[in-house]
Amino acid sequence: MLRFLLLILLSYATACPNPHTTALNGFKLPYRLYQPDQTFLMPPELLEISGLGLASDGKTLVAVQDEEGIVFFLNRKTGSIIRQLAFWKDGDYEGIEMAGKDIFVVKSSGTIYHILYNDNRYDQVEKYSFSLSRENDVEGLAYDAKNNRLLLACKAKAESTDTTDTQRGIYSFDLSTMQISTQPVFTISLEDVQQYLTTVGTTVEKLEQQFAEDAEKFAFAPSGIAIHPRTGHIYIISSVGKTLFVLHEQGKILHIEKLQKKIHAQPEGICFAQDGTLYISNEGKKGEPGKIYVFHMK
User: Fold this and answer.
1) What are phi and psi of 129, to 5 degrees?
2) Within 13 Å and on the Cβ side, how many CA atoms surround 88?
């Protein structure tokens, strides 16, 4: 009898999707973002962990916090700090990525710092400034190996001349020319989200309220971006509104998931290992340490 009841419960759990999830064209999120497989508690130095990436060796995570010009190298299996690299003076650093052995860090102003690896050490930093500014509020940085570029996700308005607050932009930084695109390569607008929610017929009440036409503002402000190594899909987290967006590599919305605030208090960084393992970092606050959550593909 007990076995029969367990089978019924298992069937019910399998048939009932996560109530915080919507999906398009059969896409299924291969992660349970409400149930981390591991949790790494960050030391005081990374209380305000703001950017996360994967090192070229595949064994190490790289991180920055939003007050100091220091790169932290972390053990991917334990989250412990292996070493630190000071590269610039204090500032508002928001995203980090590695392309080969070189490290790239972005400020909220859109300034990119290229930390070059030469003769078995990091001995040179090149700085790039463009038309983006603090008004755009760049918070996410992703390495797009397929297109030899970095993607910069803006938390605020999409263009320097844009005065509306209903569209977010993602710019590209070409690693062969070291130039940034003059216009966003992808945009996500409130209208895009509303159309998506209408198409999937969502019953997620919180999402419907968050992106309603009468909403006071567009409650989506990218704080982290990463590209899935197996699918090429673009994952974007937003601390504002507590959501995860998954885009097709051409920019179309495939999936939106509402994040649980009790777990993702302030999601700021996101990256993948080559096997598809997902890492999301959360800033600490109110006596709570910063955290990195680990999610294995299901």
Assistant:
1) -120, 140
2) 23
- Of 22-26, 54-58, 159-163, 179-183, the poorest mean pLDDT is in 159-163
Query: How many whole angstroms separate alpha carbon 87 and alpha carbon 112?
Result: 12
Q: Find out whether 243 and 236 touch, Cβ atoms under 8 Å.
A: no
Measured CA to CA, the distance from residue 273 to residue 250 in angstroms comes to 22
Q: Judge contact between 98 and 59, C-beta under 8 A.
A: no
CA dist 144 and 228 (Å) reads: 10
Q: Counting beta carbons within 10 angstroms of the beta carbon of residue 14, is it exposed (0 to 12), middle (13 to 18) or buried (19 or more)?
A: exposed
Residue 150 has a pLDDT of 98
d(CA 216, CA 221): 14
The confidence score (pLDDT) of residue 17 equals 47
- H helix or E strand, kind and range, residue 11: helix 2-15
Q: Please give the backbone phi and psi of residue 263, each rounded to the nearest 5 degrees, phi first.
A: -100, -55
